[in-house]
Amino acid sequence: MSETILSAIDIETAQRLMRHFEPEEALEAGILTPMAGTRPVRLFSLEEVESFLVIHSGNQVDSNSKWATINYVDPASLSKWIADKLGDAELASAIDEIVATRKAYGFLVPDIKKLLAERLAQCEELLAPVSGEQE
Question: How far apart are CA 58 and CA 122, in angstroms?
Fold first, then answer.
């Protein structure tokens, strides 16, 4: 990513952000399907949240299709989960700023996904084994 939005983190923060949660602490999300309704989904890590969010182009989504789906995570719930469960107030605040634009959900997802990917890249860089280091 050429533009860094989030400040650097330390190894302890990276380890905390990469943890997997138990079911009772997981983030609640849903897969919305016009013909089937909403299927609840639990996301157990920040990595799962980033992977779950899908950026759709207008060509991919046909509103008349009975198979169209939207992977939905409430942005306010996501922000609160990140602040409360992961302890990353900066990332939560950055998501809140995106939500404050009041864009439609489909237009929020690319910006939110970009932030999550940036934070995860920071974590992966810090937690990657050093070249030549034995495990």
Answer: 31
